[in-house]
Amino acid sequence: MSTNLFDLNGKIALITGASRGIGESVARTLAAQGAHVIVSSRKLDGCELVASSIRSAGGSAEAFACHIGEMDQIDAVWEHIAQKAWQAGHSGEQRCYQPLFWAGRRHRYGRLQ
Q: Taking Cα atoms as reference points, which of 71, 69, 6, 79 lies closest to residue 38?
């Protein structure tokens, strides 16, 4: 499934709003470049359809329902990514999202405006 635009082999990509439209297109493109894509949206059914289609085309993808307006769901998806990166030995990915994760947690507890 990989093309030669750029190499994302060994990388994990979280795409929100990926069950349709632009998000779906981004998920398919990143998977085509070798990334393991986490297809995320509020409804798991739509995510699973896209993830299944990516896998059928030879890519690596999984579905994860997450409403980005709900901090507990954001915490859950970040925890899932951290666990997945840890299992695969991709400690570099953690550094990529860690600032966003902690900014979100500070916001949750009212320390950011």
A: 79
Quick check: 64 and 40 in contact, CB under 8 A? yes
Percentage of the chain with pLDDT > 90? 49
pLDDT in tens, 16-66: 999 999 999 999 999 999 999 999 999 999 999 999 999 999 999 999 999
Number of domains in the chain: 1
Report residue 14 as tokens: 């979280």
Please state, as a whole number, how many other Cβ atoms lie within 10 Å of the Cβ of residue 3.
Answer: 9
Q: How far apart are CA 33 and CA 80, in angstroms?
A: 22
CATH number at residue 29: 3.40.50.720
Can you tell me the mean pLDDT for 5-19? 89
Taking the C-alpha atoms of residue 74 and residue 77, their distance in angstroms, rounded to an integer, is 5
Q: Is residue 93 part of a domain?
A: yes
How far apart are alpha carbons 90 and 85 in whole angstroms? Answer: 5
Q: Per DSSP, what are the bridge partners of residue 19?
A: none
